[in-house]
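Two proteins, back to back. First:
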Amino acid sequence: MSEFFKAELKDRFLEYALDRNDYFQIHTLYDEFLRPHYSLEYVQRLVQEIQNYDSTLLDVMGGNGMDMFMLASTPNTQDFLDEGGFMNLYVKEEEKWDTFLGHLSNTPKLTKDERKLLKKKTSTSKREKALLIGLVSALAISFLFTIISIFSEVFLRPEYVPADEFERKINQLKEQSILENQKLKNQLELTKQQLDSLKNLKD
């Protein structure tokens, strides 16, 4: 059942209580308004919601093993209905939501130029990230091959060589390592310049 019909039923319960000058069983509300499509428990739930909102709108007495057995109107019942009852509360809540949604829909949207600038910045950031990942991968691969080469030269060749030949090879490997390091430094410097250029473009 929608909140609209629940609010309407609550008001009808209060109006029914006003029309009577005595206490009546809660079962009477079930017979009058909701039989046979809903249960007595649903009527009790609606009355409990009325009580939770304002316990002075109905005079409720327990009995026959039930917390809510007999009902009657109170002096506040008429005043509440005169102010619009639960239907008025429902309308105010809906108006509040309409106002909130209206504020959301009036939130300023990005202009065409702002959307282009945002897209450009996102694209530049993606290029920077891809370039950086590519550089790190290249450096890692280059360094790995250098280590493998040195390891292969020193440990994986079992033939015996004269001391001077061994020293020559060690010096050769040192020079190769220095060249590789210089190459890596140059690549890093070049990449740094490219990143700075992209950063300036983005700004």
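And the second protein:
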Amino acid sequence: MAGVEQRQRAAPPKQWRIVITAGIAVVTAVASAWLMLESAEVHCDSLASLTVLATLAAFVISICFRQMGRFPDKRSRWILLVCMLIAAATLFADFRYVRRYREFCDQNQGVGGRQ
């Protein structure tokens, strides 16, 4: 019983965790957009970076789900929901971009390697 009482009296979760989560979600989205929209040309070198950013976006989604249980107030949950939507949009956009240009880049690397 003493452990339960200590948990109930424990300090509320620190709000800076939400700020860090939001920062990671926004930085991931901005970096992803920058890599995709850098120029009108397709840069095959950026596909690996976009894959890493998509993985980071999926990680941010899991962090948001985990923090939903720790932050019971509505404001924090809305912020986490927005972070989750940003991360989901990033994940989706990165996946679509990499999927669209993976075969093209693989063919170009194969042609360049045979010459």
